[in-house]
Amino acid sequence: MSLPLLGRGLLGLALPTVVVVLWALFMAPRAKWRVPDLWKPVLALASFVGASVLLIMNGHVAAGGVLVVVAVLNRIGLYVLRRYASPWGTDDAS
Question: What is the DSSP string of 40-87?
Answer without folding.
Answer: HHHHHHHHHHHHHHHHHHTT-HHHHHHHHHHHHHHHHHHHHHHHT--T
